[in-house]
Specification:
heterodimer; A: mainly beta; OB fold (Dihydrolipoamide Acetyltransferase, E2P); about 15% helix; B: alpha/beta; nine-stranded mixed beta sheet; 11 strands; binds zinc ion
């Protein structure tokens, strides 16, 4: 049975370069994908997940890092490069070849700015939960050599963005910046007309796969005619898609991130050294890996003797020392309260964070308490502003610093509600 | 049964500050000064054992620095043990020396604290300053000690209404004291406005809330009281040595505004001593950051929780106040060579209780408390001294 998109979530990057939303220095494909997956909620951690599709700009390490961060060790991973054809092929799945169960698709486009790629666009990640439906189904995907401008497969394409007929209702949209096309039915007449996608909200910046996700909640999408067709016009190849809408899609967005204004495009990993200076205090890689369950999934040990949690998890209860039959539980990400706060100014940062200070000037750090009790220490995402004690923060996965040729990741926190108690 | 006690019979202190001398010269200078201070002289061959407190800052002779002390102190083949508990290294080295004597095992012991911090370029200094914090969680959140103490300060201010002026007053008072200490790194007075206006390091702490980067060494000669009386007419007895521990990371501790290690150490020290807090004439507390002195006053039991600020602003802790705190300038003005600070505090107890502190002498003082903290409170020592 073909899969339908039943739920979708989008995560926007937290930096801005001119009109484009681009990755902050502590964001990349992995953190954006995780932000989108976490916005999807329990569907992204379901034990019924049979497969995770990684589409777009994922690094090879994502094949172990994504299931690790989601606590889904052993799940099948399918990684494909980006672009409309790959995205829709991944959504369509392979009937008969796919394992039974639901699927999670994480599509990421990193920004491409000021590079000789012919396109300039921001970054964004989309998480799609695929299941039996109802939702939006992709039935057929075909790619063709670049079509002549204009008529194609019965679709009239107006790349200047003027809709034909009366105001259309966007159905599905795809493409990169200037080539985004929507297949839509005009209110006044039969058949489909096309138009450019309504621009993404100011500052978010379109990216190749993301207008598609944005369109999932376009006005009128719930009472779509079906089937639909879609054309995505690429630089060299066009993709044509046929699909069916059988119901609405549950929609969510990642916690809005603070906006960091950048003056230069994000530095790509192949253009820098992934080694921070830290000859003294050093977390060897095996110890970093060992702590990932607590670092990434906020896992704590619950002790049946004390009924208390120990965080970070360490295989022993910090209160009574019990080591047997401890239960691993992930602390809730939603409600953490600031117990103490500071702003670390240039010169007071560990050398690993020299790069962070170079970009942001300073950063906040808090000790925060989870609703279940344990405390953790988090660097704050975004501009350093005073955070009153009692404020609420949400932990998010971010890059911490590069070490030994790779990024080290962990939880930082975003302030979601500043306390006015003091 | 009267417990066998250890006593200070000699002490040597190098000038603290950014100095050209290397670790070997610093060790030699402090040890020679200590032997030179023993009233009736002490043959080096009588030193049965030595303890060296040092972090190994900058990585110079990171392993086995004990052998360097044995060479420079000309101890022959007497055993030397390096003790490392971050900023409390010398406090714990002193405690090891005291226990070696109290146990009856040794009669004469040398305790030395050393740190040479200015050799490293500033980026190296920052990672060395962070090596004693919780590496896996606090450091990965972007904290060094300034940040960790700033977190405690933020909470103390929120819970008790502790004003920034009280933190500033700690710095003002300690700079005033340091001006009278020829060994101190800083010999300039500052005022509250300067402290409050200084560039921020980790809010709410500014540059003048923080101790400096310092080179220095301090040597202490300890003897059993019986042997001590043969060496000097004015030994300074160790009346009680206490120590304590706590979780490495702040996030694991029960309180963010109190150091349980200090409380434990103080309880133990007073339990061993034959006197209580009212009999203590002055304190040498671990003021690596201004907030730390306020926490110390409360955790040592000289101020109720939240009341150290008031006590400080009233002038009670000034050199002329009812309970002088850090008459030598403290870590703040005298300087904080990490592995030496605990020994430097004992040096101050030695000279003050022998009425040999010169311009900064507190008149008629008979008993002293020294308090040395490792990291942000993972370890602490409290040592009580009295003139005999
Ligand atoms: Zn337990």
């Amino acid at each position: 049975m073909p899969m339908a998109i039943v739920a979708a979530a989008v995560a926007r990057p937290s930096a801005r370069l001119g009109p484009l939303a681009v990755e902050a220095p502590d964001e990349d494909a992995f953190t954006l994908a995780m932000a989108a997956a976490e916005a999807l909620g329990e569907r992204a951690r379901s034990s019924e997940l049979a497969r995770i599709d990684l589409v777009g700009d994922h690094a090879p390490e994502a094949e172990w890092a994504v299931p690790e961060a989601l606590g889904l060790g052993g799940v099948a991973i399918h990684r494909t490069s980006g672009g409309p054809a790959h995205l829709f092929e991944a959504i369509r799945g392979h009937e008969g070849a796919d394992p039974p169960g639901t699927r999670l698709l994480l599509a990421v486009d990193l920004s491409r700015v000021g590079r000789a790629t012919g396109t300039n666009h921001g970054a964004l990640a989309v998480a799609l939960a695929l299941g039996p439906g109802p939702g939006i189904r992709v039935d057929h995907v075909a790619t063709h050599a670049r079509s002549p401008r204009g008529e194609t497969e019965g679709l009239r394409v107006d790349r200047l963005g003027r809709p034909h007929g009366s105001e259309p209702t966007a159905l599905l949209i795809l493409g990169d910046d200037e080539r985004v096309v929507a297949a839509a039915r005009t209110a006044g007449g039969p058949g489909f007309a096309t138009s450019l996608v309504p621009r993404a909200p100011p500052g978010t910046g379109p990216a190749p796969t993301t207008p598609f996700a944005l369109a999932l909640r376009a006005p009128g999408v719930d009472d779509l005619p079906h089937p639909f067709v879609l054309a995505a016009l690429g630089a060299e190849r066009d993709v044509h898609v046929r699909g069916t809408v059988t119901g609405s899609v549950a929609w969510s967005e990642a916690t809005p991130s603070p906006t960091l204004a950048l003056s230069a495009p994000p530095v790509r990993d192949d253009e820098r050294s992934l080694d921070a200076r830290s000859e003294g205090a050093y977390v060897p890689r095996p110890r970093y890996i060992e702590n990932l369950p607590s670092r990434w999934r906020l896992e704590a040990d619950w002790c049946p003797s004390c009924s208390r949690l120990t965080f970070p998890a360490r295989g022993a209860c910090a209160h009574c020392g019990r080591t047997q039959e401890l239960e691993r539980r992930s602390l809730a990400r939603s409600v953490w309260t600031v117990d103490a706060a500071t702003i670390v100014r240039p010169g007071a940062q560990p050398t690993e964070f020299d790069g962070t200070v170079a970009v942001a000037g300073a950063y906040g750090v808090v000790v925060a308490r989870s609703s279940e009790g344990p405390r953790a220490t988090f660097q704050l995402v975004g501009p350093a502003t005073p955070v009153p004690i009692g404020s609420r923060v949400v932990p998010v996965l971010r890059r911490l610093y590069p070490m030994e040729g790779e990024w080290r990741y962990g939880r930082k926190a975003i302030v979601v509600a500043a306390s006015d108690a003091r | 049964m009267v417990r066998r006690r250890a006593a200070l019979v000699g002490a040597g202190h190098t000038r603290f500050g950014v100095v050209p001398e290397g670790p070997r010269v610093l060790l030699r200078t402090a040890v020679d000064a200590a032997f030179g201070s023993v009233d009736r002289g002490l043959d080096r061959a009588r030193v049965e054992e030595a303890f060296l407190g040092t972090l190994g800052f900058s990585g110079w002779q990171l392993g086995n620095p004990s052998a360097v002390l044995a060479e420079e102190a000309r101890l022959g083949h007497a055993p030397v043990t390096r003790v490392e508990n971050a900023c409390a290294s010398a406090g714990f080295a002193l405690r090891a020396g005291v226990r070696a004597i109290e146990s009856g095992d040794r009669d004469v012991v040398l305790v030395v604290g050393l740190e040479k911090m200015s050799d490293s370029p500033s980026a190296h200094r920052r990672y060395w300053l962070g090596v004693s914090g919780d590496t896996e969680w606090e450091r990965l959140a972007g904290l060094t000690f300034a940040g960790v103490y700033a977190l405690m300060a933020s909470r103390h201010m929120a819970d008790y209404g502790t004003p920034a002026e009280a933190l500033a007053e700690v710095a003002v008072k300690n700079h005033a004291n340091g001006q009278l200490n020829p060994n101190a790194q800083f010999h300039k007075t500052i005022d509250r406005a300067q402290v409050l206006a200084a560039p921020r390091v980790a809010d709410p702490l500014g540059l003048l809330d923080c101790c400096p980067v310092t080179d220095g060494a301090v040597a202490l000669l300890l003897a059993s009281e019986e042997v001590a009386r043969a060496l000097t007419d004015t030994p300074v007895a160790v009346a009680g040595a206490g120590a304590g521990s706590d979780a490495l990371a702040l996030q694991e501790r029960a309180s963010l505004t109190s150091l349980a290690a200090t409380r434990h150490a103080a309880e133990e020290a007073f339990r061993r001593a034959s006197f209580g807090r009212p009999q203590v004439g002055f304190l040498e507390v671990h003021d690596c950051f201004t907030i730390a002195e306020l926490l110390a006053l409360e955790d040592l039991g000289f101020a109720a929780p939240g009341k150290a600020a008031e006590m400080t602003l009233e002038g009670a802790t000034a050199r002329s106040g009812r309970l002088p705190v850090n008459p030598d300038g403290g870590l703040k003005a005298k300087g904080h060579p990490i592995g030496a600070s605990g020994a430097s505090q004992a040096y101050e107890a030695f000279v003050q209780l022998r009425a040999a502190a010169g311009a900064r002498q507190i008149p008629g003082v008979e008993r002293a408390l020294t308090h040395n903290v490792g990291g942000s409170g993972a370890s602490a020592t409290v040592t009580l001294f009295e003139r005999t």
